[in-house]
Amino acid sequence: MIRFRRVTLRPLNAWLVAQPVTGSHRKYQLRVWREVNANFAALRDELIDYAQEALDDARARIRKGFEDNLSPFSDPVDDPAAHYPAMLNRITLQGYLGETLAGLAVEHFGAFGKTDWHVPAFLFRFHDQEFQHLDLINERFLMGEPHAPDAEEEMRPGRTGDDALAFRLDAQGKITHVLALEAKCLATSNTGTISDAHGKLAAGPRRPSGIRELITLLSDYETDAAQEWIARLLELYRDGFRTAKRRDGLAYTVGHWPVRPASRVSWLPSDAPHTSYTADRRFDAMEFQLEDLKGLVDTLYRGA
DNA sequence: TTGAGACAGCCTAAACGAGG
DNA sequence: CCTCGTTTAGGCTGTCTCAA
Helix H segments across chain A? Predict the structure, then answer.
């Protein structure tokens, strides 16, 4: 565990307002939240802190090669993480937002009727392609060259692997539940993307690949909390995954909500998972409908 | 050994179809 | 006939497989 921030629930619930959803399925549940942008100001600062803390590990990773005191790059002016993530392509930032909201929802709203889910770390540091891209961006700044972050040619592929993982523990601290979260964040809803997300979750193994990445990541931290998590994740990786319960979660963030028919509340199906979901696990679908997606990305990641 | 081609992951944008 | 929603094609890079 290397992240601890929470936002206060009252402003959060006023900003993301839960919508009533009908539908009863044995293993599938949909929840929908709709943004009330007018209520964002009260949450703004907290949410920025939350989103930035999620990226702290990636920043530390970027800086790691420059820690040597003899390095001429140790001057903060040349901070290799200075443009992270603000100068990355908007689509990348949207992806980060989606993953962050997935974690935020699980930590604040709960899932499967439980509110004791833990997200020990986010996996942003494994986005190698953007790290390499960042080198190029930094070079441009050093050379005084222009950089247009949202130009099409600045787009980079997404990261492979799990978008986020959450866990529940028993009284002894042993991991009892693993929640694999797939996150999507689109300006406009896309059924193909919904289908893909369901398919990817269904294909997920009982032991998600992200567990190994989490262990690797946490190994960089010497705090007790990090070490405790390494121990329980190692146990899960070696043997615990056989008995721990695996759950699936989809966090679908969209920049608008359905207009027609008037009765329609969500883009995601409400009664049963999409047909491309072929697994038989408990599945928690979360949909976030934003009034101002672009503005949120700018606020959280570009200091606008 | 090189190279084409498919894939994976992130989405957007244009084209299409159906309903009011 | 216009608008909204769905489908399809496309762009980015790195990796991997199969073929010449």
Answer: 9-15, 44-64, 90-108, 128-142, 191-203, 210-218, 224-238, 293-301
A199: exposed, middle or buried (Cβ count in 10 Å: 0-12, 13-18, 19+): middle
Shortest CA to C1' contact from A89: nucleotide: B10
Does this model's pTM top 0.70? yes
Covered bases, chain C (protein CB within 7 Å): 4-9, 11-14
Put the strands of the sheet holding A175-186 in their side by side order.
Answer: A16-19, A28-35, A283-289, A245-254, A175-186, A164-169
Nearest nucleotide to A97 (CA to C1') is B10
Return the closest nucleotide (C1') to the Cα of A264: C5
Main-chain phi, psi angles of A17, to 5 degrees: -95, 125
Q: How many CB atoms lie within 10 A of CB A129?
A: 13
* Measured CA A202 to C1' B8 distance, in angstroms: 16
Find where tokens 């990348």 sit.
A92
**Could you check: is the Cβ of residue A204 within 7 Å of any atom of nucleic acid strand B?**
no
Task: Work out if A186's Cβ lies within 7 angstroms of strand B.
Answer: yes
**Which pairing describes strands A16-19 and A28-35: parallel, antiparallel, or unpaired?**
antiparallel
Facing residues of A121 across strands? none
Measure, in angstroms, how far nucleotide C11 C1' is from residue A158 CA: 13
Q: pLDDT digits over A220-277, tens only? A: 999 999 999 999 999 999 999 999 999 999 999 999 888 877 778 889 988 888 888 8
- Interatomic CA distance for residues A181 and A117, integer angstroms: 12
- Chain B nucleotides close to protein (CB under 7 A) are 8-13, 20
